[in-house]
What we know:
0% strand
Amino acid sequence: MKRLAAWLLLVALLGPALAQNPAPTGEAADTPEVKLKALHQGYAFDQPEILVRQRLFGLAHGLSLLAAACLDLPAQSGATQEAYASWHLKQAPTVDRLTLELSQYYFGSRSEDARWTDLVRALGLKERIEDALGTIELEEACSSLPTAIIRPRYELDRLLVEINAADAATGGDVDVLPGPATDAPPADAATRQTRARGLR
């Protein structure tokens, strides 16, 4: 089971990069990588349907960075491999959909040329997990990954369906991404917009 989990994790982390960036040969090996110019930069706070996808993509990106970093910690690598491989197996279609839709938003007619790293740059996301952890130690984050990744916050498929359904039912006046459950009354539209900006 551990070998299968390790293989699935390797495919999950490297598969999209390898598929979109084949090994260079001949003259192409000497050509520097061309970065795509994004049509938009950062988050689309005025477009809730795009903002939802950006937030979910950001969660997937953060998880992939953390899982990759945890593989270097022998005490954490086994549990990380199993947890991330299981999560990715279920969430891959949603992550692929988010990647496709955001590639179209950010790169238009060049969306087929877009790679994960192009989206990361366009959104302004961190490229190293250490930059995103702040005061949290990597070991601490890695030890919590197997229990955190199974929480509803990381069920991207369910979140996307629920948010789209709520958006359709209310004409677009829904929370961009639900936060933790509280006893507080529902926020008004201005508060939700402010909350969305603060959660990036």
